[in-house]
Amino acid sequence: MPDSTPEAEGPGPWCTTDGPTPDTHGPGPAPAPPAEPCDLAVIGAGPAGLAGAVAASGLGLSVTLLDGADRPGGQFHRHPDPALGAARPGALHHDWSVFTGLYHRLTSSAVTRLTGHHVWTVVRDGDLWAVHAVTGPDGDGDGDGDGDRDGDSDDGAGDGGRPVCVRARAVLFATGSHERHLPFPGWTLPGVVAAGGAQAMLKSGLVLPGRRVVVAGSGPLLLAVASALAAAGARVPVVVEASAYRAYARVPRALLAAPHKLVEGAAHGAALLRHRVPLRTRSAVTRAHGTDRVEAVTVSRLDRHWRPVPGTGRRIACDALAVGHGLVPQVELALGLGCATRRTPDGTYALVLDGVQATTVPGVFAAGETGGVGGAQLAYTEGELAGVAAAAHLLGRSALVRTARVRELGRRRARLRAFADAMARAHAPGPGWTRWLDDGTDVCRCEEVTAGRVREAVADYGARDARTVKLLTRAGMGWCQGRVCGTAVACLAEAAPGPRQPPSPERRPLAAPVPLGVLAALDTEETGTRDPDPDPDPDPDPDPDDHPSHDTAIATATATADITATTATATADTPAEDSATATDAQACSPPDEQ
Questions:
Q1: How would CATH label the architecture of 192-324?
Q2: Rounded distance, CA 224 to CA 99, Å?
Q3: C-alpha angle 52/424/469, rounded to 5°?
């Protein structure tokens, strides 16, 4: 379930919960990046990034924390803009005291905080890591809240961003995740928002997406969103869950290992009962109706493969629909360094990590959703582990990772990860969901590519993966770079009979949109000789030790920028051969069902 109450043992000595409510007016103007290399660069200021930065700083490391948002907290601890004058900014957060305590420790530490900094690549620079970012406005480029759940909001940097480079001896990725979208007829109507987007609107803007809001999709987030909307005054006619909760009965040990999660789920259920919100399982919104905005939805029963059962459609009036089908780890930056990945129980890709959060690339650590979606408490735990491990690595004090506290954190991580994996298996999308799509449904909203065009590419031209579909149809070549449409494109391609290449995460030179002027203005003395013909087809599954050098990576990124006006924008679609990321375009069913 979405996190609320922290475990009894609480955060560690580096993350005490004492201290006042954080200043919601933010930390003020961001300081300049450090002139000298720091020990640790932490990318993402959600629960994992905050915990990691505080833990590492408490052990003597110089730490720089970068995040795309104006205020720390990530998606989980979004809080209202100070201009709204919220009397109780933590009212929508069950574990606000954990965040306030951690924020107090952060502001009392020597951590350099760079808010409004969107990291677009990390590359090797001699013995250091060069973290390249651009400054810009807060968060998600499209404002729908689907960019990040835990960490750095790097979906868009805005126009006119200022380039920034932070050099560090080690890097901690805490970049969070983004929502997985499964399209259906009518999903592009105004009033249809991501479930996380609805939550973000409420947390940061104190506004509702509508007066009568249907909540649909799959995953524990739905209950949290529905109960919050109902408590805020929205009428929630129904919560529509595609999976069956009886799947939880198959994993009793994982559930009992995290009893506070069961209590939390029961609290959300009680809130729905109190507001008289019905819950329909093994059902889905298969169509949204409306002209200028959504006016009603059709809810259909599903079989165990998520295929709609004919004749079961029921129309429900609404003026908004909040829909989400789980989360996808945001690992583009780490992939660029060659970090190895693994398949998660619900078919997404997460980073391979050892017992103390180290990736397969020496000096690179990760925590939170990058290692697999698991909620805020798991992110806090992993962040603290990663901060301690980074200190042990850089200070040469291996005893730091052999303490009783670290062993305790490891046990807690194992319990929370087992619970998260059980939830992922229970809510993994079934392969039959593509039956919701008629040929006229836009699958790629950015490029207006319909399901019919994707099916044509599969049937007539032999496309068997998202990359080939992209080359034939442009699906995934727009602003979102496949974050929204990638899953649907991959599932439609994989539905075809015959042999196909299994999906794999692909490396890109740019992990976020960057103004071409920023690339063109990079100091050639810093970037080295630019390669006029960079490799247009980088290895999609690089050797863990095959991370690019600073000169090579920046030369690749800037090769096309020399003759382009500075007002244009380079997206992560360069080079063109890189596919709609398989990070989002994961399989339509869990690995054990393929």
A1: 3-Layer(bba) Sandwich (3.50)
A2: 18
A3: 100
